[in-house]
Amino acid sequence: MTMHFLKFLVCLVLGILHSQGSRGKVSAMNPEANMTVIQMIRYWGYPGEEHFVETEDGYILGLHRIPHGKKNPEQVPKPVVYLQHGALTDSSNWVSNLDNNSLGFILADAGFDVWMGNSRGNTWSRKHKTLSVSQHEFWAFSFDEMAKYDLPASIDYVLNKTGQQQLYYVGHSEGTTSGFIGFSQSPELAQKIKMFFALAPVVSLNFSFSPIVKVSGIPDFAIEYTYGHNELLPESRVTKWLSFNFCSRAILQELCGNFFFLMFGFDEKNLNMSRMDVYVAHNPAGTSVQNLLHWKQVANFHKFQAFDWGSSAQNNLYYNQPYPPMYNVKDMPVPTALWNGAQDSLADANDVHALLPQITNLLYHKEIPDYNHIDFIWGLNAPWMVYAEIITLMKKYQ
Predict the structure, then answer these.
(1) What angle do CA 326, 123, 226 make, to 5 degrees?
(2) Dist CA 196 CA 181 (whole Å)
(3) Looking at the whole model, is its pTM more than 0.85?
(4) Cβ atoms 202, 177 nearer than 8 A
(5) In 3-state terms, what secondary structure has residue 115?
(6) Which residue among 172, 282, 294, 373 is the active-site one?
(7) Sorting pLDDT into bands at 50, 70 and 90, what band is 13?
(8) What is the full DSSP assignment across 142-193?
(9) What is the mean pLDDT of the chain?
(10) Using only C-alpha atoms, what is the Rg of the chain?
(11) Are 374 and 210 in contact (CB under 8 A)?
(12) Which of 173, 184, 248, 345 is labelled catalytic?
């Protein structure tokens, strides 16, 4: 099914380009479309470091660091910020725009030591101490394990490396999900977070109208028949090809943008269409089919709970109880600031409004009328609509 769709898409692209003749010519390619995250960071003149951390259950995660900005290398020690991406993406999200428009660079120039995490299974976290990506066991995870293992391992590594006792945590989409779970389940982990900045938070999908959520109506066996049992939508030659031959062409950039808008809500004027080749080259970055099935359960059961293994016996094996444990956001003590978009089709405003009363230490909330789900990472006006406020709050609550 997926392969037939891709063949159709390729034929469609070639047909459009042929019909447009010279108007289908390639625009100037953004070199970052064919770079690693570290190369993207260094391309803009910033220092970039790659680190690796091993989780308690053996996954080896890639961390990317911008230790300082262009003009402030001498200030030591710097306050530490940890950025966590959403589902099916990676750390490139924070450095995909121009240097004056990407949160990773803006924070570095504002005097912060910036660390960017990568969830297990994505482009930069595809290794394990004993397992291979070809084994089903490698992909037997969802956002449960990201919160339980990835988050504490990464945060502990960063704090040990920098000599700090606390850091600021910024999460987008599923990055907020991991935060809400990890900081409510582990008081020890929560104590290491100075402040939690939640961008387009997702803990429920009761009102979400994104086509992504429509998968909740598809039987599990149909999803596994289509995508298999292991990996879901990794970075691939197909997406690279689309980036170089499709989204780099001026006449087709808007079509690429409309794909994102269809998935995440519309805000056409706020996306830099000339960067579409960079966005598509690095996204999607892969996750597990089990993670998709877990989100499907969130949508169907209307509960913020651990993965349901499908039977009382299996749940007993994993949880020592016949049903998955619930996650209670009210147990999270971390000071929190939250931003959401009224045009966000994934983190719907109604779901966010239901979440707000559960956050016991909410210091700030802002709903932006025009914002969709990806405006928080790629929006043209994000530097002054969101990022400036984040930095102000960080400096206020040092």
Answers:
(1) 70
(2) 12
(3) yes
(4) yes
(5) strand
(6) 373
(7) very low
(8) -HHHIIIIIHHHHHHHHHHHHT-S-EEEEEETHHHHHHHHHHHH-HHHHTTE
(9) 91
(10) 20
(11) no
(12) 173
